[in-house]
């Protein structure tokens, strides 16, 4: 860290902070925390402790609490600082601001006021979980916290059931079992999935398997700490050849091979040409 970082231009700076290990903070984040005229934090105690760990003193600078309960009142104050030529750094409890935290409304308000917003990227539970899950990362959807009510949770998951991407959820330990059961019901027990707990911390744990397997393994897990649940996209688990042939034979009882292949391919998430070729080997008339 530069002992004398350059002064910051007036702007809102979103600063990513560690999700577990304090050493995961970036050098740029430390520079911003050292130089910002004002620091806004979701939890001022956590932020003060992080700064103390890294030897950063407030030195009389304002440390402003900004969270869901006071955001409406604090946004004009923070915008006022920037209009007066000051730099404002915002940090959430942990990880990247705006990912499941109250920073969105602040960023939107600063943008609407015609003022600059910038970000110092860094730790993110979403990306850390994707990295260790073993699931595809070329396309993913962060779905946040599922609704706590059973009916709303099922509706929420049904809306996501056809999304062709890895799904990422945050969940509390006491609701994990209910979420997994609802995922089996709506997404299917054979979908590949992962549960990541306490990422980057001393007792980090990742369980991988199908949703059915993870439900069965739940009694063995220590359900404490921060949890990220990931689920593979539809069709990640391929039907075996016997299942495809059986489905084709049933479909061909009432349809031509071409139509039967299309029906089975759509039902099993397989390429239509591949299913059609299997149908030809069955030597059934079209």
Automatic annotation (TrEMBL):
CDD domains, per database record: RsmI (cd11648)
Keyword tRNA-binding: no
Protein's UniProt name: Ribosomal RNA small subunit methyltransferase I
Function, as annotated: Catalyzes the 2'-O-methylation of the ribose of cytidine 1402 (C1402) in 16S rRNA.
Domain Tetrapyrrole methylase: 12-214
Organism: Brevirhabdus pacifica
Subcellular location field: Cytoplasm
EC number: 2.1.1.198
The family this protein is said to belong to: Belongs to the methyltransferase superfamily. RsmI family.
Tagged with keyword Cell membrane: no
Domain RsmI HTH: 239-283
Keywords: Cytoplasm, Methyltransferase, rRNA processing, S-adenosyl-L-methionine, Transferase
CC per GO annotation: cytoplasm
Primary site of residence: cytoplasm
NCBIfam families: 16S rRNA (cytidine(1402)-2'-O)-methyltransferase
Reactions mediated catalytically: cytidine(1402) in 16S rRNA + S-adenosyl-L-methionine = 2'-O-methylcytidine(1402) in 16S rRNA + S-adenosyl-L-homocysteine + H(+)
GO MF term (any one): rRNA (cytosine-2'-O-)-methyltransferase activity
């Amino acid at each position: 860290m530069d002992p004398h970082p350059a002064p910051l231009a007036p702007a809102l700076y979103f600063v990513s902070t560690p999700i577990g290990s304090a050493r995961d903070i970036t050098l740029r984040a430390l520079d911003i925390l050292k130089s910002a005229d004002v620091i806004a934090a979701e939890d001022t105690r956590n932020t003060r402790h992080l700064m103390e760990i890294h030897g950063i003193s407030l030195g009389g600078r304002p440390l402003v609490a900004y969270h869901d309960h006071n955001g409406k009142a604090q946004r004009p104050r923070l915008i006022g600082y920037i209009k007066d030529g000051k730099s404002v750094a915002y940090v959430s409890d942990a990880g990247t601001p705006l990912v499941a935290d109250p920073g969105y409304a602040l960023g939107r308000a600063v943008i609407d006021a015609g003022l600059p917003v910038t970000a110092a990227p860094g730790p993110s539970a979403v990306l850390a979980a994707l990295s260790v899950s073993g699931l595809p990362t070329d396309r993913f959807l962060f779905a946040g916290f599922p609704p706590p009510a059973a009916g709303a949770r099922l509706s929420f998951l049904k809306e996501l059931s056809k999304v062709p991407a890895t799904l990422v959820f945050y969940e509390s330990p006491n609701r994990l079992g209910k979420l997994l059961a609802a995922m089996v019901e709506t997404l299917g027990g054979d979908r590949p999935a992962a549960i990541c707990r306490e990422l980057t911390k001393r007792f980090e744990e990742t369980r991988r398997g199908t949703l059915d397997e993870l439900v069965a393994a739940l009694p063995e897990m220590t359900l404490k700490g921060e949890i990220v649940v990931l689920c593979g996209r539809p069709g990640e688990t391929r039907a075996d050849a016997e299942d495809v042939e059986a489905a084709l034979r049933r479909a061909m009882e009432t349809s031509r091979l071409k139509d039967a292949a299309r029906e089975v391919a759509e039902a099993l998430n397989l390429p239509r040409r591949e299913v059609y070729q299997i149908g030809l080997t069955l030597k059934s008339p079209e």
